[in-house]
Write a structure and sequence with these properties.
single chain; about 300 residues; about 40% helix
């Protein structure tokens, strides 16, 4: 087993169960141990703060240990042979997972946990983790992810190199095809080429199209050579970026995006496209921070 583990957070909810199943599969595929984490929620219901004393805390700890035992049994059933460890924290879940993610190969969470009613909203733990983690975070959607290719959102930014590497690695271990998708508009290209004012708009757009196709080819060329066993399709689309990526995600087994992309500001933790994918993509979404992610 390799050193850095796959970490998964659980609170016993349905979305957490989907995350556990996905994490067990990732641990098995990558030959890594699985660490199942649970943080005891010690926030008392309104009006009961006075009765939450040592006995109450002990009961909460026992419940947390029970959740972890059940999760461990399920993980071992789903992926026989993997090494499973558990981690119980009396701190809040966000602090626990951020700390564990710092040393993880991959951290898996559900799209939302207990306390979230609206299915379109990300849970607070998931939102926090994807914004600050320095290692990849995988957000599960269902217990059985749809079959389909790994879709990689390519924007040509230096920070996206880590996302490209992760996507090729996932496609290789799961024996999946990889779709490298680059969506662009005339407004998303940082610098328009110098053109003769007598040229038509069609000629200018065609020049932009050629440049964006070269950008996509260059972004994946090195990894395609390193992973020749991965079938790669390159697709450059002149269209609305978020909608183009969401359309591709509809048939994907996994969507991989960088934490922030071309044009992002140095202090920005999560790009607008990545955030939209976490909210609306129907498949699991992996958010991969670039090497320049700030502490």
């Amino acid at each position: 087993m390799n050193g850095a583990p796959v970490v998964v957070g659980t609170d016993g909810s349905g979305p957490a169960g989907a995350a556990l199943a996905l994490a067990a599969g990732e641990a098995a595929a990558h030959g890594r141990r699985l660490v199942i984490a649970h943080a005891v929620d010690r926030t008392p219901p309104p009006g009961l703060a006075a009765v939450l004393h040592e006995t109450g805390t002990h009961a909460l700890r026992e419940r947390g240990e029970s959740i972890l035992r059940d999760a461990r049994t399920r993980a071992e059933d789903l992926a026989p042979g993997i090494t499973v460890e558990t981690a119980l924290s009396m701190d809040d879940a966000r602090s626990q997972l951020v700390a564990l993610a710092a040393e993880a190969f991959l951290t898996v969470v559900g799209s939302r946990g207990h306390g979230r009613v609206a299915s379109g909203l990300l849970g607070s733990v998931t939102r926090q983790l994807t914004a600050v983690a320095r290692t990849p975070v995988l957000v599960a959607r269902s217990a059985r992810p749809p079959a389909g290719p790994v879709v990689l959102g390519v924007d040509g930014s230096p920070a996206a190199e880590a996302a490209t590497a992760f996507a090729f690695q996932e496609a290789a271990v799961h024996e999946a095809d990889l779709l490298a998708l680059h969506a662009w508009t005339e407004w998303s290209v940082p610098t328009l080429p110098h053109t003769d004012p007598t040229r038509s708009i069609e000629e200018v757009v065609e020049e932009l199209r050629d440049g964006e196709e070269r950008l996509l080819a260059e972004a994946v060329a090195g990894w395609a050579e390193r992973c020749p066993e991965v079938p790669v399709e390159r697709r450059s689309v002149n269209g609305r970026i978020r909608q183009t990526v969401l359309d591709a995600a509809a048939g994907a087994g996994l969507l991989v995006v960088g934490s922030r992309g071309r044009g992002g500001f140095p202090g920005l933790r999560l790009g607008s496209v990545s955030s939209a994918m976490l909210q609306h993509a129907p498949c699991p979404v992996a958010v991969v921070p670039g090497a320049d992610r700030e502490p």
